[in-house]
Amino acid sequence: MGKLAGKVALITGGTSGIGLAAATLFKQEGARVIVTGRDEKALARAEQALGEGTLAIKSDAGNLRDVGRLIDTVKARCGDLDVLVLNAGLAPARPFEAIDEAFFDEIIGVDFKGPFFTIQKALPLLKPGASVVLITSVVAKIGFPHGSLYGAAKAALGSLARSLSAEFVGRGIRFNSISPGPIHTPIFARMGMPPEVIEGILEQMKTTIPMRRLGEASELAKAILFLASSDSSFILGQEITVDGGMTNVKI
């Protein structure tokens, strides 16, 4: 029997990268999986790859109307939720002095406001013993040029996980977060920079990682599964860093 047998899990941003890897592993462990995304073609590919029983819903994490419709659909189709993974996010790089209000609102809307209100709207569906996993980033702990807004949003998610842990421990709902380091995912291609620049950045990142490589989405998925399952039943309000030693080990 799988670690999530009979469980219902919602993963935002589940059509590629870390989200899709987590959805794939959750399915293997017996969960009924719901994934969200903004691109219809990516949703169709994910639904086909994940197989029968998967529910793929078009939803913009930064649009509260979409979030409301998403939760209504989950309630109508699946009833309660056992696992909620807040993975959807944007990570475009921009110099601090070039950030305008529109860019600020877009990034904060998807990376913080969206997860905040998704949790709020999903609360009535979260069963006692449910697990909520928020995906943060090492950028919240290590300063990177052009990453001020993304880092601030991810730091806010880590704080949110701790605050909600205190607020809802009486309902038996666990909130934890995972802080990934550089991972092989499509998000780098969406940072708005030429491919050769991105490749240079990734090669430079490898030199700062003690394990001298980027992580794989499948490695993050295993950490998410740990927090989603009863294996982590006595873990609350914690942030697990999965970064090859980038933040804590210097060699």
Provide a brief overview of the structure:
Helix content is 43%, strand content 18%.
Spatial order of the strands forming the largest sheet: 3-2-1-4-5-6-9
Q: Can you summarize the main beta sheet?
A: 7 strands, parallel
Uncertain runs are none
Distance between the termini: 41 Å
Following the backbone from N to C, one meets helices and strands in this order, namely EHEHEHEHEHEEHEHE
What does this structure look like?
The chain has 251 residues and is α/β, with parallel strands linked by helices. It is built from seven helices and nine strands. The strands form two sheets. Strands 3-2-1-4-5-6-9 form a seven-stranded parallel beta sheet, with helices on both faces. Helix 6 (195-208) links the parallel strand 7 (183-184) and strand 8. The model has no long low-confidence stretch (mean pLDDT 94).
Task: State the main characteristics.
251 residues; 9 strands; globular; seven-stranded parallel sheet; 7 helices; two-stranded parallel ribbon; alpha/beta
Topology, pairings included?
Blueprint (H helix, E strand, L loop, with lengths): L7 E5 L4 H12 L3 E6 L2 H11 L4 E4 L5 H15 L2 E6 L14 H22 L3 E10 L12 H21 L5 E7 L2 E2 L10 H14 L6 E2 H12 L10 E4 L9
Parallel strand pairs: 1-2, 1-4, 2-3, 4-5, 5-6, 6-9, 7-8
